[in-house]
Amino acid sequence: MRMSTLFLRTLREDPAEAEVASHKLLVRAGYVRRAAPGIYTWLPLGLKVLRRVEAVVREEMDAAGFQEVHFPALLPREPYEATNRWTEYGDGMFRLKDRKGADYLLAPTHEEMFTLLVKDLYSSYKDLPLAIYQIQTKYRDEARPRAGVLRGREFVMKDSYSFDVDDAGLELSYEKHREAYVRVFTRLGLDFVIVSAVSGAMGGSRSEEFLHPTAIGEDTFVRSPGGYAANVEAVTTPVPPALPHDDAPAAHVEDTPDTPTIETLVAAANASHPRPDRPWTAADTLKNVLVVLRHPDGTREPLAVGVPGDREVDLKRLEASLAPAELEAFGEADFAAHPALVKGYIGPGALGAESASGIRYLLDPRVVEGTRWITGADQPGKHVFDLVAGRDFTGDGFVEAAEVRAGDPAPDGSGPLELARGIEIGHIFALGRRYAEALDLKVLDENGKQVVVTMGSYGIGVTRALAAIAEGNHDDKGLVWPRGLAPADVHVVATGKDAEVFTTAERIASQLQADGVEVLLDDRPKVSPGVKFKDAELIGVPTILVVGKGLAEGVVELRDRRTGEARQVHLAEAVRAVTDAVRG
Amino acid sequence: MRMSTLFLRTLREDPAEAEVASHKLLVRAGYVRRAAPGIYTWLPLGLKVLRRVEAVVREEMDAAGFQEVHFPALLPREPYEATNRWTEYGDGMFRLKDRKGADYLLAPTHEEMFTLLVKDLYSSYKDLPLAIYQIQTKYRDEARPRAGVLRGREFVMKDSYSFDVDDAGLELSYEKHREAYVRVFTRLGLDFVIVSAVSGAMGGSRSEEFLHPTAIGEDTFVRSPGGYAANVEAVTTPVPPALPHDDAPAAHVEDTPDTPTIETLVAAANASHPRPDRPWTAADTLKNVLVVLRHPDGTREPLAVGVPGDREVDLKRLEASLAPAELEAFGEADFAAHPALVKGYIGPGALGAESASGIRYLLDPRVVEGTRWITGADQPGKHVFDLVAGRDFTGDGFVEAAEVRAGDPAPDGSGPLELARGIEIGHIFALGRRYAEALDLKVLDENGKQVVVTMGSYGIGVTRALAAIAEGNHDDKGLVWPRGLAPADVHVVATGKDAEVFTTAERIASQLQADGVEVLLDDRPKVSPGVKFKDAELIGVPTILVVGKGLAEGVVELRDRRTGEARQVHLAEAVRAVTDAVRG
Fold it and tell me: Which of A81, A363, B220, B316 could form a disulfide with B232 if both were Cys (CB 3.0 to 4.6 A apart)?
């Protein structure tokens, strides 16, 4: 690779739409270019890194005994109809028709097709266990593609699927994948945390995510000192014991004018209706939040959620609890359709399937029997006090909707939770029999009986992992690739106008190539040393060899991109010095 | 790779829908499986061969100095709108909308995106010439997907694009690609003929196809002894000189009852209206054929084509002449809409833009001034004789529509043509400035003047080439891969029940793998030798090593899949014998 002819233009300015460092730098250093929202073109340098990341993933899959296949991206509707995912996937799936009007989709994942292929080929327990995988282009019509290739609409994914005759087999296959993933991310130099996750639209009994901790991550996860780790959407709230309430006073409606918010309500309660022992706090109030569920079939259902007033409703947790339905805002038209709701003063009296509004009402698990609440009285400027759960109101069920906060207890009693953010780089699912049942994948067991196969599915976001690596390996000057993933092993930079410099750089580059060292050679004749150094720092090859004015004294300079360390090397030693640096 | 765990099922029966050998065998031997019409899944063996074919293509592209990039398959409408291909591509392009209603397509080729990318990165003549390529998944909504991966709707293509500042540069880039293609197909062991072709929807000044000659090919091409070679759609008819017609009799209408076909017309003419010197033949009649053009914008236009009655209209040639319009049948409703047309007796009198029907009328180039014809008189049961072209009728122009026949003269005077069939495995286009103009790709030339860049585009059907290789490398027992493209270098088959056989086969396989020889090991414990041999022949690895009952005498058997030759080899020599066979 020669910079004089390489299809590359580095940019000094950050692209306007880029917010995170990896996105800015991958564009500025000429690795990727945006073709459409969430859809990127890989330029020569980017493609080299992508192939190297893919190679690590492929080697570990092969080493684990998984077999590579390759499915089409364009798939017919029918198998996805059989599992209901054609509908469940909602707006997130690209759908199209062919010239004959038949329905097709661009696959977001391939559970259905792998299931059908195994059904096509295999029929006996002797054929199992089986694990097959592909590294393939996937499509998801993300509502908010962001951060370059970190969350794209066309992206490369490694997806594996395991097939076992029984639960114990699935458990083993799941563990094998989990271990292979640990090896992949370790080799890629990506920090990771394995957290419990919700299975969501995928279904299944158990799932875990591999999260790369970083402040720019879109996923929030929790950890406890005792080792509990979960995606925040998978955190379950420990249910407190029911409280005795025989001595509780009857509920009483009080005037609380101009208190449409929790803050104003607490202030008014303390001012006009103080209790003797301690002041009212937001935790004493019950906040009722309205949303609309949009079900996969397109129907809209209003829903009320009651949570303690000191916590916000976490819409991602709520949505995960109610998957595959998606959330929409409860708008003015919805209020108009439900006159029983008094905005700012909505209480349990107007909520619930059996109520005047008929709106389903789900409660936070902390709202156990006997808890007392200040909450809306369904009249303007009025709240009800001492409203006792289980005595004065009940919901239509419970839901995990309240935000999780640092210090909350872990559900397994392992201590207080801390919160952090991460990028989902892998996700493993013990799917169980959902897909095999829907598509009738059975094999004969040892007793000659037909049994439904049990499956797992396992994904690594390959392009996302690349972005995460870039995110974790940069400084203010540019990218700093880990060795083995960089687009080249060494960046040889010839500086100055002396012809000798260029011929020497060429010769060193040839010798290195002959030794199996991949070289990026900056042989541009009329570019200043400053520009060349800036480009080398931006591109981020880990070792830089400068052939320049030192050549008159028979020395070249070896630079380490990560540490910034530079040392003079005798010309005769240059090739060996680079080879040593590259081979570590 | 072990047959005991390999994700593979060979089939003894041909798949119902398969017509050509490569399709049958690739399915039966477990290389591919159909996911939808024209859409295939690659199983482990197939994927290995595909990667090997890709590697040959990639190596030759890299060796020619072309740089690899990778574009998305899902693309926005706008660039294709700018070049008019969004419309021109008609039903052949998959189109879809995203969740926001924006128009997207699945790219059939990437001229627009490469043009925009170069525009984004480059601005000076100093940056050119440039040639960039990708090996990528393409989509075309073929009306008739057929023959497995030979003509698919999702397929792998290598597409390159060249960018030059002037015509001379384009000529060089075109030649470089042509040479690289010669090397690719030679290395793949694919016979090929380079023929002139029509540029069709792609546009441009010059194009050639690389055709692999085979009876199952969909393309017909011609060759002359003097070296002319062209796709039959690109053949131009030598225009004969005009004939004197001063002494021609006036045209006269004759009764020719019940002569709606050329055959009945010729018989009736000879019976009732004989000419003295020689009998009438079909070549004396002018056949007028009606079709409907469907233009890319959806409008339908009726069209009449007049050809000598001894030739059929070749609809593919006609369609190529009229691209991007597509042909439809002229139906009963169309006849009803044009009462001037008398079915079976249609003549020039009722045809032409200025005629009663108003239907555009295009003539075969042989219908020069002075030629005399028997043709329809536009009355039931009547034909007109001695109708002289240029005196009694003229068309609205000429068109290449008549079939080309063996023995026809080559347009360059290089002798009579012979016809053959082939598979299009490559196509190279000197595009010129069409795309650069539409998308405003300009660079500064040496004089600081903005000039429009001139481009070429060059494609290799990678999956199609694989099918062509399979088609040309099989016998009645199965596939016979060329060395270097097979899914493994050697197929080691352990036969019998003796444990010693299996451990020996394992040991040999390990030694071979250690020597860098890729082994497919048939270690299935309870499968008969007959089944194993049949599978080995079907799968088609070029070298087969049988470890079986000969082991008692210290020998194994080395078989050549292509020649069928087998010879005994001493056990101690087995590894070397295989290595020698593999390395040639």
Answer: B220
Q: How far apart are CA A432 and CA A219, in angstroms?
A: 25
Task: Reply yes or no on whether the pLDDT at A173 is more than 90.
Answer: yes
| Cβ pairs A/B, distance under 8 A | 136
**Among chain B residues, CA nearest to A143:** B99
For the record, the structure tokens of A456 come out as 């797992």
Dihedral angle computed from the Cα positions of residues A553, A559, A565 and A568, in that order, rounded to the nearest 10 degrees:
-20
Give the C-alpha separation, B158 to B111, whole Å. 13
- Cα separation, B538 vs B578, in Å, equals 20
Which ranges in chain A are annotated with CATH 3.30.930.10?
47-235+419-471
C-beta of residue B455 within 8 angstroms of C-beta of residue B115: yes
Q: Where in the sequence of chain B do the CATH 3.40.50.800 domains occur?
A: 488-583
C-alpha A325 chain-centroid distance: 19
Query: Contact, A538 vs A479, CB < 8 A?
Result: yes
pLDDT score of A316 more than 80: yes
- Report yes or no: B431 and B203 within 8 Å, Cβ to Cβ: yes
- Rounded to whole angstroms, what are the CA distances from A332 to A270, A329, A336, A337, B542? 32, 10, 6, 9, 73
pLDDT in tens, B185-205: 999 999 999 999 887 665 667
How far is the C-alpha of A79 from the C-alpha of B139, rounded, in Å?
21
Q: How many CB atoms lie within 10 A of CB A266?
A: 21
pLDDT of B111-164, one tens digit each? 999 999 999 999 999 999 999 999 999 999 998 888 888 889 999 999 999 999
Give the residue ranges of chain B where pLDDT is below 50. Answer: none
A325: nearest Cα among A290, A360, A361, A294? A294
Beta strands in B295-381, from DSSP E residues, in sequence order: 300-308, 326-329, 360-363, 372-379
Residues of A in contact with B43 (CB under 8 A): 69
Tell me whether A154 touches chain B (CB under 8 Å): yes
The CATH classification of domain A252-388, taken from the options 3.90.78.10, 1.10.10.10, 3.90.960.10, 3.40.50.20: 3.90.960.10
Q: How far apart are CA A219 and CA A233, in angstroms?
A: 9
Are A429 and A207 in contact by the 8 Å Cβ rule? The answer is yes
Would you call B69 and A99 a contact, using CB atoms and an 8 Å cutoff? no
**CATH 3.90.960.10 region(s) of chain B?**
252-388
Q: Is B76 on the interface with A (CB under 8 A)?
A: yes
Nearest to B47 among A7, A70, A117 (CB): A70
Cβ–Cβ < 8 Å for A442, A165: no
Q: Say if residue B515 is exposed, middle or buried (CB neighbours under 10 Å; 0-12, 13-18, 19+).
A: middle
Taking alpha carbons only, the member of A32, A344, A248, A4 closest to residue B69 is A32
Architecture of domain A47-235+419-471: 2-Layer Sandwich (3.30)
The dihedral sign for the CA sequence B39, B45, B49, B51: positive
- Between B6, B43, B74, which is nearest A39 by CB? B74
State whether A41 and B139 contact (CB < 8 Å): no
B-chain CB neighbours of A42 within 8 Å are 69-71
Q: Per the CATH hierarchy, to which homologous superfamily does domain B488-583 belong?
A: Anticodon-binding domain (3.40.50.800)
Complex-level ipTM: 0.89
Residues 6+ apart with CB under 8 A from A317: A232, A233, A235, A400, A401, A402, A403, A404
- Whose tokens are 């890194």? That residue is A49
Total length of chain B: 584
